[in-house]
Specification:
By secondary structure, the protein is α/β, with parallel strands linked by helices. The protein is built from 14 helices and 17 strands. It has helices spanning 59-62, 75-92, 112-115, 128-136, 148-158, 176-186, 200-206, 222-230, 263-274, 280-306, 318-326, 359-364, 378-384, 386-390, and strands at residues 12-21, 37-44, 51-53, 99-103, 120-124, 141-142, 161-167, 187-198, 218-219, 234-242, 248-255, 311-314, 337-338, 356-357, 369-372, 394-397, 403-404. Strands 6-5-4-7-8-11-10 form a 7-stranded mixed β-sheet. A 6-stranded mixed β-sheet has the order 14-13-12-15-16-17. Strands 1-2-3-9 form a 4-stranded antiparallel β-sheet. The protein is globular and about 65 Å long. It binds ligand DWN and S-adenosyl-L-homocysteine. S-adenosyl-L-homocysteine is lined by residues 59, 63, 67, 69, 71, 103-104, 106, 124-127, 130, 145-146, 167-169, 172-173.
Length: 405
């Protein structure tokens, strides 16, 4: 039986996605036979409300010197992170002498906005290859995992942080107690901790089961964030909806003493209650929706292939790994997946072993259908691929439901 990582209460498994490879472990044929699979199940804690995966692979097996995801691959995300950095700077009135620490700084896409303006800054990033890209941009980076010990060491060497920021990383860290204790220790008395994560409400509303994978340990809400960080004397003072990654929340936290809470927090909490995020039946309905989506996607792709059409994937996302494996899509059904990331190209998708090819393979010979695995970048991609549609190419979407455009 699985116990909640937050409160130790037994959890309820609501979705079993089967044996899964690591979502970002793109591989070469010589490694097909020793590919590692784990059991991917999503669970709900009826006691504290935290939604989480039941078993997680070791963080060292996912975040290392050969990590496949580079934040800077999307032009819209680069702009988004500039907006994030400026909002933190302006809201908190930060100046160059203030220390800004980013957790999960990846290739430096966010922190470069502080580094280039001469701010004291530090990225904490365990994946050495992406950290090298950040350093080459002049972003100071410590190659290690953020936790309480790292936080204490940084505080010892650099003093307290005026701002600690992060995107798509807090829910990636299994020991959230250690994260919260670390933030509490590193944050200056009037400092703020500001982070973003795809939120549980959006996942449920969109039927986005492909957010569930090895790296995403938790699916956060204002309710669970306020609860966990509250245990460590940190208060959720504001929350802002973001469009990125299919719907995210930006959480603003401060030390609890004297913290003033924005009305937006109560509004978000009320929305989460309305959506039934604290009720088992919500997750049962979600499972039924996922199963239906899986059957429909198989059908649409299968029908296209039966009619002799070419089908490819667009964006070799971590999310796509889940969809390909859960829906049982094979190299006979999906010819290749196009992706702009050099570290993924000429490798094969985890578990399903479909070739990943540079964008040129898509552009040079348009297929009849493309499954958009990078559906969160839909606006950016549809705008730049207007020629594909103009020439009769069709997109297959599976979020919020399976449909062809
Ligand atoms: O949380 C996480 C997020 C931030 O990034 C990580 N755990 C892992 C990763 O998730 P993902 O792989 O699902 O992220 P994206 O941003 O949906 O990945 C987009 C992929 O598509 C990248 O490999 C780049 C590629 N791409 C492309 O080929 N053409 C992206 C765009 C915008 C394009 O035009
Ligand atoms: N922040 C970037 C990258 C998100 S991908 C963005 O939003 O685009 C998740 C990142 O978190 C990876 O770069 C991974 O190496 C990093 N990471 C994972 N566990 C971590 C930890 N304990 N501390 C700091 N970073 C971590």
């Amino acid at each position: 039986m699985h116990h909640c990582r937050i409160c130790n209460h037994p959890t309820e498994t609501f979705l079993d996605l089967g044996p899964m490879p690591l979502a970002n472990a793109f591989l070469l044929p010589e490694d097909f036979l020793r590919e590692h699979f784990y059991s991917l199940r999503a669970a709900f804690c009826p006691s504290c409300g935290m939604v989480q995966i039941a078993d997680n692979p070791d963080p060292e097996d996912m975040f290392h010197g050969d990590y496949a995801y580079f934040s800077g691959q999307s032009r819209y995300m680069v702009q988004h992170f500039q907006g994030f950095a400026h909002s933190v700077r302006d809201t908190l009135g930060l100046g160059p002498k203030d220390l800004v620490v980013e957790i999960g700084s990846n290739d430096g896409t966010m922190l470069t906005n502080f580094a280039s303006a001469g701010f004291r800054h530090l990225g904490i990033e365990p994946s050495g290859n992406v950290a090298d890209v950040a350093r080459a941009k002049g972003v100071e980076t410590l190659v290690t995992f953020f936790n309480r010990e790292t936080a204490l060491a940084v505080r010892e060497q650099q003093g307290p942080a005026a701002a600690i920021i992060g995107a798509n990383v807090v829910a990636h860290i299994p020991d959230m107690h250690s994260v919260a204790a670390g933030i509490k220790a590193l944050l200056a008395p009037d400092g703020s901790f500001v982070f973003e994560a795809p939120d549980l409400a959006s996942m449920i509303v969109n039927g986005a089961y492909d957010q569930i994978y090895d790296e995403h340990i938790y699916f956060l809400s204002a309710s669970t964030v306020a609860h966990v960080f509250g245990l460590y004397g940190l208060t959720l003072v504001d929350v802002q909806e973001q469009w990125v990654h299919g719907g995210s929340l930006r959480f603003w936290l401060r030390h609890s003493e004297g913290a003033r809470i924005s009305d937006a927090v109560a509004r978000q909490l009320a929305k989460e209650t309305r959506l039934g995020l604290g009720e088992t039946k919500t997750y049962d309905a979600f499972r039924r929706r996922c199963e239906k989506s899986r059957d429909q996607l198989r059908q649409v792709v299968g029908d296209a292939r039966a009619a002799g059409k070419r089908v490819v994937g667009y964006g070799a996302t971590a999310k796509g790994t889940i969809v390909l494996n859960y829906c049982g899509l094979t190299p006979e059904m999906i010819e290749f997946v196009s992706d702009t990331t050099p570290a993924k190209q000429y490798k094969f998708t985890p578990g399903t072993h479909i070739p990943v090819l540079p964008h040129g393979a898509f552009a040079a010979d348009y297929p009849d259908y493309a499954v958009l695995f990078a559906w969160n970048h839909r606006e950016e991609i549809l705008a730049k691929e207007s020629q594909y549609a103009a020439k009769g190419g069709k997109w297959i979407f599976y979020v919020p439901d399976v449909h062809v455009l």
